[in-house]
Design brief:
By secondary structure, the protein is an alpha/beta fold. It has one domain: 3-Layer(aba) Sandwich (Rossmann fold), CATH 3.40.50.150. Helix content is about 40%, strand content about 25%. The protein has a 7-stranded mixed beta sheet, sandwiched between helices. A hairpin with a 6-residue loop joins strand 6 and strand 7. Helix 5 runs parallel beside helix 6 and helix 6 packs parallel to helix 7. The longest helix has 15 residues. The radius of gyration is 15 Å and the shape is globular. The structure holds S-adenosylmethionine (SAM). S-adenosylmethionine binds next to helix 3 and strand 2.
Length: about 180
């Protein structure tokens, strides 16, 4: 059986976030949450005012199981601090009235064009000085799509090792234009 830390990351992720943003996080969004493991880790390690977790949670294959696990894992915080938003990332990006996300965690579909779409939609909704994290950069599509998005922008995505195995991520702090 795989251990949870092998699925996601260990304290390196939290240390990195803390070094950029401190311990108090205002509004956070997670694109692709599945069972809520990252959300759970974040809530255990930071003071978070509001965390929105987006996922399509596909109905046919595993909606019941995934949603049940998400609700169980986040029982302590659900509907108080953390809120599930079921549906496409692109649809939620268009309707949510917030442009002030302190931390944006991109971990939805890992195909290149979808990673680019998520960055195009959620980058403008992240505040200046906010942090965007793109997970699973060990996957070729993710590894290539993220730098592509930042060509011509002042920010440079930085790779970091966010886990004990091969799980790597990018981080980018949003600068003023
Ligand atoms: C790698 S898993 C997320 C894992 C989670 N972030 C964690 O660390 O525990 C990717 C999730 O993204 C969701 N997803 C894929 N494409 C999506 C889209 N277009 N909009 C919303 N969610 C999507 C999938 O249903 C899946 O649950």
């Amino acid at each position: 059986m795989r251990r949870q830390k092998d699925l996601i990351h260990d304290n390196r992720m939290w240390d990195m976030i803390r070094s950029k943003l401190g311990n108090e996080l205002d509004r956070v969004v997670e694109i692709g949450t599945r069972h809520g493991h990252w959300a759970m880790g974040l809530l255990k390690n930071f003071n978070v005012r509001q965390l929105l977790c987006v996922d399509i949670w596909p109905r046919r294959r595993r909606f019941g199981r995934d949603a049940t696990m998400w609700l169980q894992n986040l029982e302590e915080w659900r509907f108080k601090t953390v809120f599930p938003l079921r549906g496409m990332s692109s649809e939620w990006a268009r309707v949510l009235p917030y442009n002030d996300f302190h931390l944006t965690f991109v971990d939805g579909c890992h195909r290149g064009h979808m990673v680019l779409e998520d960055l195009e939609l959620w980058w403008p909704k992240t505040r200046i000085g906010g942090l965007v994290l793109c997970h699973d950069a060990h996957e070729v599509d993710v590894r290539e799509a993220v730098p592509k998005f930042f060509v011509g922008r002042p920010e440079t995505p930085v790779l970091f090792n966010s886990g004990p195995t091969k799980v790597k991520s990018y981080w980018v702090i949003k600068e003023a234009d």
